[in-house]
Every structure is written in C-alpha cells, then in structure tokens.
Design brief:
Glutathione S-transferase Yfyf (Class Pi), Chain A, domain 2; mainly alpha; 0% strand; 230 residues; single chain
C-alpha cells in the first residue's frame, strides 16, 4: 500500500514563514552593520592615537633635549600604543569572524527563500548555500576573489601598523638599555615581522577551525562559481 502524498502547505503558512525569515534577515543585516561601524570607529581611534603619540614623542624630545625624563616618557607612550593596538587587532579579527558568521546565516536564510519559492533562485546574485564556497560567492559574486581582497583589508592594515609600533617599541627598549642603533633596528624589524607573521598564522588557523566545526545545511554544486548568467 503506497504512502499518501504530503499535503501542500497553505499560502497563509508559507506567507507567515516568509515573514519570519525576512524579520530574521533584517536583524542580521542590522547586527552586521553595527559591528562594521563599531570596528571602523575603533580603527580610526587607534590610528589617531598612533599619530598623536608619535607627534607627542617628537615634541617631548625637543622639550627635553632627548635626555632626562624623555626615555621613560617615550617608552610609556609606545607601551600604551602597543596595548591599544593589540586590543584593536583582536577586535578586528573578532568582527571579521562575526561578519563571516552573518554572511553564512543570511545565505542559509536565502536557501530557505528558495525552498519556499524555487523560481526565485536565478535572481539571487548572492549564494543560497551556507557552506564555504557559498560564503565566498556572496562576498564576491561578480568575480573570483583575488589577493587584492587581502592587500586592501582592514586587518592587514592593522597588522602592519601594529608590527611597526611593536618594532619601534622594541628598538626603543634596546637603545634605552645602551644597545647600538644597528641592534635596535635589527631587533625592531624582527619583532615587527614576527608579530605580523603570528597574526597571519593565527587568523588562518582560526578561519580553518571555524569551517571544520561548522556543518552547512546546503552545499554548493561542484565546479567554478556560476556568476549568475541566467
């Protein structure tokens, strides 16, 4: 005896479901916008502090003739910039992961829209698949993501600025301890490069670990992105 075919859901049920999904979608958009606005403000504050700190060090040097209390004041300012810079980088990395989280969540909602009305899928430029490939397609649905995404990112900017600040602080410590200028330059360069490399490795491992733990609901079809020629 064959099983009875499932009863189709009414338009009222489907309409209510679409309304719930749209409300959640708007909530994710608002949360994403708030996070982006907050982190851009944090970056602006940090870069302003770096600029003001370096100018202050120069003015203090002229006022003290680079002697007496100049060294402890310089180290205190650089230490403060290192602390604020590290906190800013941590926040930028957290927001980057949050932004990816919001994109994946909206991809999943888009997939729910397609389940409600399969005929709308060709009109979505962003992906309706909540896996890694779907996330990449949503971030760049007109062309394949290239290295320019990395070179122009806010995270790389913060990595480089923090590498310079930490390297300058390390070099200042060497000079204030009686070390030669050559050793100070070498130490600063090594510290800066080590910090930038460490941040890159941590970001990559965190990104990989996130996708290893996550289980997508809809998988992207194999092959290159379609870039929506329909």
């Amino acid at each position: 005896m064959s099983e009875p075919s499932p009863v189709p859901e009414s338009d009222a049920v489907l309409g209510r479901r679409a309304q719930i999904l749209a409300t959640e979608h708007w909530g994710l958009l608002a949360a994403r916008s708030t996070a982006q606005s907050e982190v851009l403000t944090r970056i602006t504050i940090f870069l302003t502090l770096v600029s003001a700190g370096l100018i202050t060090i120069g003015l203090l040097g002229q006022a003290s003739d680079f002697s007496d209390w100049f060294t402890p004041a310089m180290l205190a300012i650089l230490g403060f910039l290192c602390l604020i810079g590290f906190m800013t980088v941590v926040r930028v990395m957290n927001v980057s992961e949050e932004d990816m989280m919001y994109v994946v969540a909206m991809n999943r909602l888009r997939g729910a829209y397609v389940d409600l009305d399969p005929g709308i899928e060709p009109y979505f430029l962003a992906s309706a698949n909540d896996d890694q490939d779907g996330m990449k397609l949503t971030y760049s649905f007109l062309r394949t993501r290239s290295v320019s995404i990395l070179l122009g990112s806010s995270a790389l900017l913060l990595f480089v600025v923090n590498g310079c600040v930490f390297g300058l602080s390390a070099g200042a410590i060497v000079v204030s301890s009686g070390g030669a200028i050559g050793w100070a330059i070498a130490t600063g360069a090594l510290v800066g490069i080590a910090l930038i490399t460490s941040l890159f490795l941590y970001t990559g491992l965190s990104y990989r670990g996130t996708w290893q733990r996550y289980e997508p609901r809809r998988l992207s079809p194999p092959g290159p992105p379609p870039f929506r020629r329909q």
